[in-house]
Write a structure and sequence with these properties.
Helix content is 37%, strand content 19%. The protein is of the alpha/beta class. It has one domain: 3-Layer(aba) Sandwich (Rossmann fold), CATH 3.40.50.720. The strands form four sheets. An eight-stranded mixed beta sheet has the order 3-4-2-1-5-6-8-12, with helices on both faces. The longest helix has 23 residues. The protein is globular. The structure holds NADP nicotinamide-adenine-dinucleotide phosphate (NAP). NADP nicotinamide-adenine-dinucleotide phosphate (NAP) binds next to α1, α2, β6 and β9.
């Protein structure tokens, strides 16, 4: 049997994709979820609450690596209650996983955390790992998340945090609503269109997680995004091209606010702001990207 990797919060968009990728590499996968689903093909589900130690912690002992994807989706309206849950679900899961690791007889060799490029705020300046942080709620969430993850320096496991960009995949994530808008002939430039999208193909992201798990030289914080960020205007044009749609009128900012709140039940800033991030540490460490051209990436995800 292959080595075991535990994916906390692995039932979502990124976790499910990584789980299937790891199975293909010969690993055993255990997903920690608040819902009980005894067995999903070769994936074992174990129930936890994301905040208190329980029987689930025995899965961590003797495992090869732990990857934490847990967090209430940020794709919602930022009410007080939602904001609190966005923060607590992230901080609590990091804390309780650390507690579980600290009580292991055989600790995993890697503890990998899904973080976010949102820490850089809304900026068109190029951001590598050392760029200044932005300001606002999402930035504060990311700062608290990273601080919690590195609060206690663990000798074993090695700790890696991937600040993930705009991950493009087949089943879910941010591409789904955009595809829907384009198919309804509503996929024009969003707002000014000057906000950047630091995108990456999910195959590249899965390989980044694999490196973080297996490559013992990986440590600390990485911008987990592609090397070719583009503006929203360029992104929407490429998406329309790939979906066979011609020019579509832009969606002005007030229209986006209304549409986000009334129809999509989400936070308008998710579409109206952006960041221009580059994966400097990954490039320096020799990581090879499969997808650097947006149209090639979108064709792969949409046409196949
Ligand atoms: N997708 C992206 O492009 C992207 C970009 C940057 C950062 N990230 C970050 O990467 C992580 C994973 O992203 P994703 O797209 O896979 O998210 P997702 O599909 O929403 O999955 C997150 C998982 O977290 C668990 N969860 C949700 N609310 C929770 C709560 N209140 N308490 C405990 N567990 C909770 C859920 O698992 P159960 O319901 O099974 O318990 C859910 O499946 C998130 O932290 C996200 O912020 C994602």
């Amino acid at each position: 049997m292959g080595k075991k990797i535990v994916l906390a919060g692995g039932s979502g968009f990124l976790g499910k994709s990584l789980a299937n990728f790891l199975l293909g590499k010969g690993y055993q996968v255990v997903i920690l979820s608040r819902n009980s689903a005894p067995l999903d093909g070769q994936i074992k589900y174990v129930q936890w609450d994301g905040k208190t130690l329980g029987d689930w912690a025995s899965e961590i002992d003797g495992s090869y690596a732990v990857v934490n994807f847990t967090g209430k989706s940020v794709n919602c309206i930022y009410t007080k209650k939602n904001r609190e849950e966005i923060v607590s679900s992230r901080l609590d899961s990091v804390r309780v996983l650390r507690e579980a690791i600290l009580q292991c007889k055989q600790p995993p060799q890697a503890f990998v955390q899904a973080g976010s490029l949102a820490i850089f705020g809304d900026t068109t300046e190029r951001c590598d790992e050392n760029a200044p942080f932005g300001s606002g709620f999402s930035v504060d969430v990311c700062k608290q998340w990273e601080t919690e993850f590195f609060k206690e320096a663990l000798t074993t496991p090695r700790q890696v945090l991937l600040r993930i960009g705009f991950a493009l995949g087949k089943d879910g994530g941010a591409l789904e609503p955009l595809k829907k808008l384009v198919s309804l002939n509503l996929g024009g430039t969003v707002g000014s269109g000057k906000q950047y999208i630091s995108w990456l193909h999910i195959d590249d992201l899965n390989n980044m997680f694999l490196e973080a798990i297996e490559n013992t030289s990986y440590s600390g914080i990485y911008n987990a995004t592609g090397p070719t960020p583009i503006t929203n205007k360029e992104f929407m044009k490429s998406l329309r091209n790939v979906m066979g749609k011609g020019w579509t009128p832009p969606a002005p900012t007030p229209f986006v606010w209304l549409g986000a709140y009334l129809f999509m039940q989400t936070e308008p800033s998710l579409a109206l702001t952006g960041r221009n991030c580059v994966p400097k540490k990954l490039v320096d460490s020799g990581f090879t990207f499969q997808y650097t051209d947006i149209e090639v990436a979108l064709k792969d995800l949409i046409s196949s």
